Amino acid sequence: MTYQAPTLADLTAQGKQPEVLFWVGCAGSFDERAKSITVAFIKILNKLNINFAVLGPEEACSGEPAKRAGNEFLFQMQAISNIQILNGYQIKKIVTACPHCFNTIKNEYPELGGYYEVIHHSVFLQQLIDEGKIKMREGGEFKGKKITYHDSCYLGRANNIYEAPRKVLEVLDAQLVEMKRCRTTGLCCGAGGAQMFKEPEPGSKDINVERTEEALSTEAKVIASACPFCMTMLSDGVKNKEKENEVKVYDLAELIAKNEGL
Amino acid sequence: MKYFPQIIFLALLLIASSFIFKSIRRIRRNILLGHREDRSDNTGKRLKTMLLVALGQKKMFKKPLPALLHLFVYLGFIIVNIEILEIVLDGLFGTHRLFVPVTGNFYPFLINVFEFFAVSVIITCAIFLIRRNILKVKRFHAQEMTSWPRLDANIILSIEIFLMLCFLSMNAADYVLQTRGAEHYISTGSFFFSGLLINLFQGFNDKQLVFIERFCWWSHIIGVFAFANYVFYNSKHLHIFISFPNTFFSKLEPAGKFTNMPEVTKEVKLMLNLPVEGPTDSNAPIGRFGAKDVTDLTWKNLMEAYSCTECGRCTAQCPANITGKKLSPRKIMMDTRDRVEEVGQNLDKHGKDFNDNKALLGDYITVEEIMACTTCNACVEACPVNIDPLNIILQLRRYKIMEESQAPASWNMMFSNIENNFAPWKFSPADRFKWIEKLNQ
Ligand code: SF4
Ligand code: SF4
Description:
The structure holds two protein chains of two kinds. By secondary structure, chain A is an alpha/beta fold. Chain A contains twelve helices and eight strands. Chain A folds into two domains: 8-126, Rossmann fold; 136-259, 3-Layer(aba) Sandwich (Rossmann fold), CATH 3.40.50. In chain A, helix 7 packs across helix 9 and helix 10 (207-216) crosses helix 11 (228-240). Chain B is mostly helical. Chain B has helices at 4-31, 43-55, 64-93, 99-103, 106-133, 147-179, 192-195, 198-201, 206-234, 239-248, 262-271, 299-307, 313-317, 319-322, 329-350, 360-364, 367-371, 378-382, 389-403, 409-421. The radius of gyration of chain B is 28 Å and the shape is elongated. The relative contact order of chain B is 0.10. Chains A and B meet through helix 2, helix 3, helix 4, helix 5 and helix 6 of A and helix 11, helix 14, helix 18, helix 19 and helix 20 of B.
């Protein structure tokens, strides 16, 4: 099957309106590793015949890193411009694979005039599972394997989403092993608060290494994440520990796509 | 001379209350040095949060053992306060055990309950002293736990033990006097815990016993007055009271939601030629963007500074602190409190227009600290009294970035990329949709 990713501009020209906008985000658009997450998620959307669209070239940074860094001006410039575009297309529902975009658009855009139903792809996938559209597969690739899940701060503590990603992993029929610091006490990967875009302050260790060591200590062969920034940090951590051949970091969407044979 | 003790007692009570009143006024004034912020909505949810977090100590129970011990001290504190009521009334009216006739058979039960808590407070405070000073639990020995915060904790724990010992000895001596039919000492029967101490007091004659009983009585009540004054004067133990309003005014929105600065919205809308609500008087003075000093923070930030128990649960969870960075959310709160106290003292001493040329950012909190924060909310989640150090960190960052334009070079790159390429990395916006090429590879 050839996969499609229609743009809003095209759909609108054809007089069509998508049910849901897939907000790809900057990492999902530009970062080599995160592009695979985008692709995996789009394959799932295609397979399940979901009526979606992307903004394509019209998408722009949500402004999240600028806001966390303290540059409120730049954030609001981005946010208000984005809201104009989204409102122009009369967008009602947005799904995104980035917890940072998710948090900002869901919680910080409304006051600036952007009211949408915003869902993170972990919750979106969980809903598809609940509706029976994604099912547990007999003898899938991950059956019985140890998987550990790394909580993203902006899903977990920031928005209280702890169970949806774990529900999604259940479909893999794998063995979920938790790290000691999980859910409300999950340790940050080190990327949030715009740390992704600068060198860390002097200290005894990098945060991503600390977190990766904890993940490795579970002896899981797969570290599941639900955020492109966590993905970068943990992948770097695994490389730092020279374990990249044995241990893989995958996003939830990639795991589901693989399990579905996409 | 009959009324002499009563007069002394009344004088002490008045002095103690007036000092406490003064402290409360000072703290209130200092908190109100902060900016206005409306947190008067949603009373129902706020009450519920307060009952769960402050009264029910819900978040303490993430660490069950310390929580249980803390609960003993806390209940002990509340319950022994009821006993204080009798003591105060006795002191004022020159009576002895005023509640005996009123409560009848219930009285020994009440006192037994009080004594039970008195004993548990003694044991618990002793354990706490051991944890702090002998076992040296890590979170009590970080850089910001300088000699004063450590002493503060030890003082309070010791006072509590002292007060409870007075209370028990007083009851024991009282009982011995009762058995000897001494005047004034109405029969209450013995109480369980102080009953265990009776043998210590049998050897004294009546006069000595009366002296001991009175001495304990006075020490106890003067100790209580001193304790209350100390708590309100400048101690982390203010949390006993202030955690109630502090949790009531908690942030109710998702932790991930950061405030949008309305003054910025206005300017951005003007720049983008969008309609702006409200007056657009361009001459209106614009306040400082972000916070440099405590007076730029909100009253809620300052109330939180006064609520901090210095327990260090936040810092123990902070990813930056865990990996050896200077940032410690507890220090952020302690610095904020120290600075607002200093600003308040300056006001009292030198009046309104005095400028000490110091500020929270720079003289107390360094840029290195605030830059290390990953905005992960671990500190907020961990805090047993719903303090939000992250909010202060964010406001300090806003000042540094927007007023002083002093971002790390790589952040400036990120900013200019977003501004020019609409992405935090240096990619052309024309390439944004290139990921589509990977879709059918
Ligand atoms: S939000 Fe900042 S200060 Fe708080 S725990 Fe996370 S990194 Fe530390
Ligand atoms: S901010 Fe909260 S968690 Fe941190 S030391 Fe103060 S009371 Fe404890």
